[in-house]
Amino acid sequence: MKKMLMLAAMLSTAALLVAQAPQPQDTAASRQFAAWLTTFNSGDRAALQQYFEKNRPSEVAKVEDELQFRQQTGGFELKKTEQSTATRFVALLKERDSDQFARIELEVAAAEPHLVTKVELRAIPRPPEFAIPRMSEKEATAALRQQLEKAASADRFSGAVIVAKDGKTVFSEAYGLADREKKIPNQLGTQFRIGSMNKMFTAVAVLQLVQAGKIKLSDPLGEYLPDYANKDVAAKVTIHHLLTHTGGTGDFFGPEFDAHRLELRTLEDYVKLYEKRAPAFEPGSRWDYSNYGFLLLGVVVEKVSGQSYYDYVREHVFKPAGMNSTDSLPESEPVPGRSIGYTKEDGSKDWKPNTDTLPWRGTSAGGGYSTVEDLLRFASALENHKLLDAEHTDLLVTGKVDTPRGKYAYGFQDSTEAGVRCFGHGGGAPGMNGDLRICPASGYVIAVLANLDPPAAQRVSEFIGSRLPAP
Fold first, then answer.
1. Of the ranges 213-222, 244-253, 255-264, which one carries the lowest mean pLDDT score?
2. Residue 167 and residue 203 in one domain
3. Which terminus, N or C, of the chain has the lesser number of Cβ atoms within 10 Å?
4. Exposure pattern of 312-340 as b/e (b: 16+ CB <10 Å)?
5. Residue 401 domain flag
């Protein structure tokens, strides 16, 4: 009886929510949406279980995933009803704990009891009609501090943040614990695993060799790896394709990686495992994010330079940029200042170390580690042409192909939001998340690293990025 009364109260609140939305129709679909929204936002396992049993019986197994999603988002606010018919409801939502917007599409059966037949919830760029007003630098950093303190106290953020203007730091703080068992706090100098952010370093390395006349962007992979097993990949996939994720070379994460995770110790080990695969689509025909493509770029760097990938980036990227705390040492070698990553991505209710998910060593596709201070140094070296001349720096960071979130350049995302252009790259995997944004016109650089699951760091960079003054 208590559960029935609780659900009845939730449905009553849900009906009120829909009634308050901009010009919604009171339909079976809108009522089902409102019931889901209120139950989801409650974060109550029993109520959510009851909702699924009654309205989405074929998806009861998803209750735990739904609860985990609720933890990540803090729930949603209904911002705008886009469509409301008897059997279909489409609306814009905003995460309660971040600036992220999403579009939900919900469909129900025409007949009673109007069971939910389809639910799609997709993240979308913030609609212009809900643009966030720009603030002064002082106001924006004060809002950032408040947001971080709130997120850290709720255990949604653990990491380090640095914001600089024209090379001068205007905000720098660290939150949470680098090691929960030993109670070691995160600091600005703490090293965090950075996931795919290594792609920026790999792209710089390739463009350095292009600048030196040792690599041609239009050359096929086979020009540098003549013994590559799949001849279609070798003949059709160019360096440009690899740098822009348009080669159809796919990923290396999946069952094969899981089975050989600790055996994959060199870049060549990955090539031996995956080189027989054909392109997933005609190279150059579309964009599809490819970790394996950037792994191959690391092998090209090795073949052309005569050095290991790790030695090359250490000598030609990290050293000239002054990045003394960035590397990709094997997991067997201790790194005293590095944080432990904590994850819930396996469905656990509590944070647990991500040790069992880590590769033996980071690669040219990602998996290394850095600090927010080193990422700021990297941004400065790039903008001041310590790594590449002006022509090749521009070539590196200027968008080439469309993606769901702006354009992709060479190992850099190039996006303009609310009139402000920034380039950089994010990274994420269980227990790690990071983001670097370099905004040349405004002079701001934002670096955020976290030792928690995505989108812990990205939420922070998006929050401050949308509030800092425009140029």
1. 255-264
2. yes
3. N
4. bbbebbbeebbbebbbbeeeeeeeeebbb
5. yes
Q: Which two tokens stand for residue 5?
A: 């009364």
Q: What is the pLDDT of residues 364-375, one digit of tens each?
A: 999 999 999 999
Question: Which two tokens mark 223?
Answer: 């020009």
- CA torsion, ordered 398, 125, 245, 249, to nearest 10 deg: 180
pLDDT for 24 equals 56
Pair (185, 109) in one structural domain: no
Total structural domains within the chain = 2
pLDDT digits (tens, 9 = 90+) for 138-176: 999 999 999 999 999 999 999 999 999 999 999 999 999
Q: What is the pLDDT of residue 6?
A: 39
Alpha helices by DSSP H, 419-455 = none
Q: How many CB atoms lie within 10 A of CB 211?
A: 17
Range of the domain at 449: 137-465
Strands 101-108 and 88-95 come out as antiparallel
Domain end call among 112, 130, 148: 130
How far is Cα 166 from Cα 162, in angstroms, rounded to an integer? 13
> Is 135 within 8 Å of 467 (Cβ atoms)?
yes
Q: How far apart are CA 155 and CA 169, in angstroms?
A: 26
Q: What are the tokens at 206?
A: 């390739």
Per the confidence metrics, is the pTM higher than 0.70?
yes
Residues 88 and 172 in one domain: no
Tokens coding 417: 């939001």
Q: Does residue 2 have a pLDDT over 50? A: no
Domain annotation covers residue 471? no
Give the 3-state DSSP-derived string for 107-160, with helices as H, strands as E and coil as C: EECCCCCCCEEEEEEEEECCCHHHCCCCCCHHHHHHHHHHHHHHHHHCCCCCEE
Residue 470 covered by a domain: no
